[in-house]
């Protein structure tokens, strides 16, 4: 725990807040907080109560700002952005967003995260169920034997693409008895076999190809979140049955692509044909989090706009006689999402002093008001900075100056 976080133990209001949470008296409202202080309080709550935090905010700009503030205190924070749902048949070259999502989900699965930051839109979107995504993880252990052919098939199933030499995430290579798998843009894992038996496992740098450390075992997680639940032949039969007599030419072309292995670009369109059930981000985050709602009124307004935009997209596609992607139809109402979270400890974060908070149809009597403010710019005016510091010290305030490398 750093010195700045330790200082909060001297705050009667913060200790009162911790007492409310520990005694399960939620929801609790914290008002008068700037954005920096919201991130600070989320981190401090995790430190003092040792419980994971999920922070939900109203848009992605605010979410990324929150992550930036929290990263000052800890690197165990991830941002899970919304899915970009494709409404037309075109190829998207950028894979940054899907990689960002799966890396965050994998860290959650590995319990490497203390604080998750996401948006109401990401929570409202449908996803493949968690048990489907993580059903076929690959575990390697020194001294155990494996079928190399089966490993290749399993890696492809998890979304990895075979290359002669791996250069980036989502890739693997097999050369003789050496299996290389990229874990991200910088780091890979090298597994050396003696026959069918794992002889050694080591991490290595993708750029230099130099080994960095040895390990005894490793688990390989999915490279994307479109792991198939059933064979493509079964998917095709479901699509044929569901769309019989509708959009024949389009469906025929889509089926040909799916049969040729290009199924990922069709999952949003035929989501319910690929997966028996749908999940959402709440089940990935888990039930043991303390949930922080950042500006609840803005969250609810944003959710309303999302539903309206979703309806407009559907109407536009109907007018143009296009197939409505089933991933769009899986969008949940914000009320349904909030009901999933209602049994978890809840904290409302507000910049303004709201009086008695009225959120999600409930009244919170546990409101604690703080007086905080941000000074955004001193620029090069060091004299103004020093003058403010002297004034604060003369008023008996504690002054801490923070900086980044």
Record the SSE blueprint.
Layout: H1 3-6, H2 12-22, E1 28-31, H3 35-49, E2 53-57, H4 60-70, E3 77-80, H5 96-109, E4 115-119, H6 120-124, H7 130-133, E5 138-141, H8 148-157, E6 161-162, E7 171-175, E8 178-182, E9 187-194, E10 197-205, E11 211-215, E12 217-220, H9 232-242, H10 248-259, H11 271-274, H12 281-285, E13 290-294, H13 296-319, H14 326-329, H15 334-340, E14 346-350, E15 357-359, E16 362-364, E17 366-369, H16 382-394
Parallel strand pairs: 1-14, 1-17, 2-4, 2-13, 3-4, 6-7, 13-14
Antiparallel strand pairs: 5-12, 7-8, 8-9, 9-10, 10-11, 15-16
Any overview of this molecule?
With 405 residues, the chain is α/β, with parallel strands linked by helices. It contains 16 helices and 17 strands. The strands form four sheets. The protein has a seven-stranded parallel sheet with strand order 3-4-2-13-14-1-17, sandwiched between helices. It has a six-stranded mixed sheet with strand order 6-7-8-9-10-11, with helices on one face. Strands 5-12 form a two-stranded antiparallel sheet. A hairpin with a 2-residue loop joins β9 and β10. α3 crosses α4 and α9 runs antiparallel to α10. The two termini are 19 Å apart.
Would you summarize the structure shown here?
Helix content is 38%, strand content 20%. It is of the alpha/beta class and 405 residues long.
